[in-house]
């Protein structure tokens, strides 16, 4: 009855976050909240949107993002405003400080109990590597203007991008965002 599932990331896959990366370079204690709150102003990434529409023709879409659940309504509104295909929206739960790659693998494995996950699209090289190592079918979004393309952080120009990548993967770097 249900169709095969395609799991899509948001930031760096369909959303262009460049305009808010500078917020992560500040010393403000609210910088992570400010960074996520600004997500409503993201431009859509056309390559990501095109792929999402193609997939939606014969897949159920699940949006899987490291964004905090706190901005769920903002994120739902943004997806709708961009005309992106509707789907379940899975976000980082409040207080969950684990790296994005760990949380994403867990959420996908939960999906697999009841669905056939045939495609995952994500721009973060370390998320991509982690999911592939678990045997999952991952298509890496390479069109993001700011993501480290080859998993080499030294290539990344803007400081904010390094911060974001570090945060999402939980390896080093900045203080994690507040849980509240
Ligand atoms: Mg991403």
List keywords for this structure.
180 residues, five-stranded parallel beta sheet, two-stranded antiparallel ribbon, 7 helices, binds magnesium ion, HAD_PNKP
Account of the protein in words:
By secondary structure, the chain is an alpha/beta fold. The chain has one domain: 3-Layer(aba) Sandwich (Rossmann fold), CATH 3.40.50. Helix content is 36%, strand content 17%. It has helices at residues 18-21, 31-37, 46-56, 72-81, 100-112, 125-133, 159-169; strands at 5-8, 15-16, 43-44, 60-68, 88-92, 117-122, 138-140. The strands form two sheets. A five-stranded parallel beta sheet has the order 5-4-1-6-7. Strand 6, helix 6 and strand 7 form a beta-alpha-beta unit. Magnesium ion is lined by residues 9, 11-13, 122-124.
How would you briefly describe this protein structure?
With 180 residues, this protein is of the alpha/beta class. The chain has helices at 18-21, 31-37, 46-56, 72-81, 100-112, 125-133, 159-169, and strands at residues 5-8, 15-16, 43-44, 60-68, 88-92, 117-122, 138-140. It starts with a strand and ends in an 11-residue tail after the last helix.
The hetero molecules present are:
magnesium ion
What is the number of E strands?
7
Terminal residue distance: 39 Å
CATH superfamily, please?
HAD superfamily/HAD-like
Strand order of the largest sheet: 5-4-1-6-7
InterPro entries: HAD-like_sf, HAD_PNKP, HAD_sf
Region (Disordered): 145-180
Protein name: Polynucleotide kinase PNKP phosphatase domain-containing protein
Domain Polynucleotide kinase PNKP phosphatase: 7-141
